Amino acid sequence: MENIRIGIVGLGRLGKVHAFNISQNIPGACLVAACSLDKRELEYARNQLHVEETYSQYEEMIENSNLDAVCIVSPSGFHAEQIQLAMKKGLHVFSEKPMGLNIKEIENTIKIIDQCPNQVFQLGFMRRYDDSYKYAKKLVDNGEIGELTVIRCYGIDPSSGLESFVKFAKASNSGGLFSDMSIHDIDLVRWFSGKEVNRVWAMGKNAAYPELDQVNELETGVALMQLEDKTMAILVAGRNAIHGYHVETELIGTKGMLRIAQVPEKNLVTIFNEHGMVRPTSQNFPERFREAFICELKEFVECIQKNRQSEVTAYDGLQATKVAIACQRSVDTNQIIDIK
Ligand code: NAD
Known about the structure:
Residues 4-120 form the Gfo/Idh/MocA-like oxidoreductase N-terminal domain. By secondary structure, the protein is an alpha/beta fold. The protein has helices at 15-24, 39-49, 58-64, 79-88, 103-114, 131-141, 162-171, 177-193, 211-214, 285-288, 290-306, 314-333, and strands at 4-9, 29-35, 53-55, 69-72, 92-95, 121-123, 148-158, 197-205, 220-227, 232-241, 246-253, 257-260, 271-273, 276-278, 337-338.
C-alpha cells in the first residue's frame, strides 16, 4: 500500500510535534505539505523535515498538493472551517481539539462529515491513547471499581508556558480555559462513564498573572458537574502549576478507586539531595503525552488504511464543547447551567 500523503496546517507548539511524528514516527504515512503563517516554521519544515511543499494559505495547500489527508493544528477558531474544506475536497481529516468554538459551527461541520462516510475523521483527544488511561479504562469497563460515583480531574499547564500561552491567546481566541484545557478532562469524564453531563457549576479566579485579565483568560477554574446517572465530576483547570505540567485523574467507584498520575512524574528517577527526596515532574504536554501523540496518529493512519472510523468522533467533539461552553457561561453568569 502507498504511503498516506498528509499535509499539516499549523506548525506552532503542537504542530511541530505532529509534523515531526508524521515525518518520522508513523509507519505508512509521509508529510508532504505544510502550511503556516510563520516563514521560519515553513523553513523548519523544509530543512528539518524535508517537506516538499510549503504554503501560507490553507486553501492553496489542499487545492494544489496531492494529499490523502490533513492534520489540522491551527488555532482553535479555524478548525471547523478547515475541517469542512478538507472534507469537501475528499480528504481524511485529523483535527486538534476543540472541534470549534461554537455549537452551530460544529453542528454544521458534523453534517458535512456525515456526508462523507468513506473519509476518516478523528479528533485529537490523545489522552485516550495514553497507556495509563487505556489501562484504567479497561479496569473500569471490567467493573474492577464497581459503579462510578465521582470523577476528579486536574489539568493544569506549567507556569513556564504562560508567556507562550499569552502570545497564543493574543493572536487568536483560545475559546477560554474550559474549551482549551478542560475539554480533555470533559472527554475523559464522558469516556470513562459512558454518560453525558447534564448540568455544571463553574467558577474562576485570576491571582498570580494580571496579564491573563488583559486577554480575558482565566488562570484557574473549577467546575462541578452532574452526569445523567447522578455521577459527579470535579474539574480543576489552570495555567499556573509552578512544578510542571499537572494532569491527574481520579475515579471513585462503589468497589474501589483509581488514580492516574497522582503525582505528575517525569520518569522513575528519585533524586536524594540537599532538598531531601525529589521526584522530578513532567514539564509540558509534548513530554507527558509523547507516546499518546504518536499512537493517536498511528490510529488515524490505520483507520484510513483499513477503511474504518476512529473511536474519537466528531460527536465527542460536539458534546465536549457543549459542556465546556456551559462551564464558561456558568462562570460569566454565576449560575448553574443545564445542558440540553
Ligand atoms: P500556536 O499558536 O503555537 O501555533 C499556531 C500555528 O497555526 C502557527 O504555525 C501559525 O502560523 C498557524 N496559523 C495561525 N493561523 C493560521 C491560518 N489562518 N492558516 C494557517 N495557519 C495558521 O498554537 P498551538 O499551541 O500549537 O495550538 C494549535 C492547536 O492545537 C489549538 O487548537 C490548540 O487547542 C491545540 N492544542 C492541543 C493540545 C493537546 O493537548 N491536544 C496541546 C496544545 C495545543
